[in-house]
Amino acid sequence: MEWLSAENIVAVGTAVIGVVASAVMVWYERRVPRRKRIGYRVQMDNPVGDDVRSGRANVRLGLFDEAPGMADATLVLLRIENDGSQSIAGDDYTSRERHGLTAVFTDRVIRGVSVTQPPGTDHLMDHFTPAAGLSYEGGTLRIPRVPLNRGEHFKLLVLLSGGDVGRRIRLIGGLRDGEVSPNRSTTPDDQPPLFSRAARTITVLLTVCVVTLALIVVLRDDSPPPIGCEKGTLTVTGSTAFAPVMSELAKKYERDCAGSDIVVDAHGSTAGVRELAAAGAKARNGSPPVVALSDGPKPSGFPQLRENRVAVSVFALVVNDDIPLRGLTLDDVRRLYRGEIRDWKQLGGPDRPVLLVSRDANSGTRQVFQHRVLGRGEIANSSLDCVHKDDATAPVVRCELDSTDQVLSTVAGLPGAIGYSELNLALTLANGHKGLHLLTLGGHTASVEELERGSGDYPYREIEYAYTYGQPPADSLASSFLAYISRGSGQDVIRTHGHLPCGTPVGLRICGAD
């Protein structure tokens, strides 16, 4: 494992943030006085005189106009409350004087004070006496050591003169294991935040880290690299039906194993086997770097080739959408490919000539079809363009093509055409509504799922073999690639392409029995 991978960096970062955040919060709780807290705020600061220096002069009547010294008077409403998490007792105040708090009104002189408290807190008024320290002098108001339960408050209405509104107002004092500080003014509809800004910030950071780590874990490719990655060059030839599987496996192996170069060059099962045998005969040092894939067992006469059973491949008959038939019996198929049925109306279809689209003699798909379905070889080729007879004596039009893709595209484009193909390629084209559909065979549907459920009645199937020339060295790219095919990641690719890996429990049983 690389320690500098993205997921490791995020994981370590998340852990570090969590540890640091926890330590900071512990330090914060121990060092910063938060549990006992007196908060205060100015709820009103208005002029009552005719001094217009502040731009807020108002109308006066009665004593506000007649009493001396009221020309520049102001009224201040100061709210003092316990907004901490614990109650505050009289001895929690740290002042050395009799009083507990001091309110300072900068540049103003106090002329009078009125104390109010909310309903249900009449007991607070007993503490607002001169003996308890309630007094004022100049711009300083001394407030007694008033015990406050959590959430309790009182208000001070202070009449002042000698200064404009908006001058600084401070509440000075201290609490044991607590603090005195201004708080935010709220309206009745406001809700205090559930968590502090520090807690919200830490929560957001941790959430972002955890989500990022989860995305990396979910989206990363967990496929383990091939066991024993090897460098070098390897050619994979043979079956065109299995070529898409091998192409994807080759790309995944190259991505996981730097220095490997795997070329997939499919020309048909028989041609691939012969190419492997020829390369082995020329090789001077044992097994050449060539693997041949074959739909079914190799032809006789190649004793040097060593087989590896890879998967169970399912094949299907396909017919042009012009023919509405959905299934054929085995006897119907055999009569078609013996040339005994020349028109689809003989099978209950439309009045349309039969066009047989087949693979060339090198095709493993054709060999499986002949062995598993027909029980014999196909009739002779009679057409080059799959439309016109080149042999006037031939009973039906029959052409041969080089690849499965060519067969599928030709059947899709020619009314009356029938052919055969590897199942997954046929399903891909049929599901795209490209002019053809699959046929059931003897009442059985071509399906890998049916094989996995234990039904072995569908006849058009075969084992996919991977051949090497002798036993390649254990440290060769050929051996490593074949091991990769048979393990988890390789089996996943095989299954995705519609084949049943021989390495699965059901695959082992079928591959061994067949």
Automatic annotation (TrEMBL):
Transmembrane feature ranges: 6-28, 201-219
Keywords, alphabetical: Membrane, Signal, Transmembrane, Transmembrane helix
Stored InterPro entries: PBP_domain (IPR024370), Phosphate_ABC_transporter (IPR050811)
Domain of life: Bacteria
Residue ranges of domain PBP in the record: 228-485
Pfam family, one: PBP_like_2
Protein known as: Phosphate ABC transporter substrate-binding protein
Organism: Streptomyces fagopyri
Biological classification of the source: Bacteria, Bacillati, Actinomycetota, Actinomycetes, Kitasatosporales
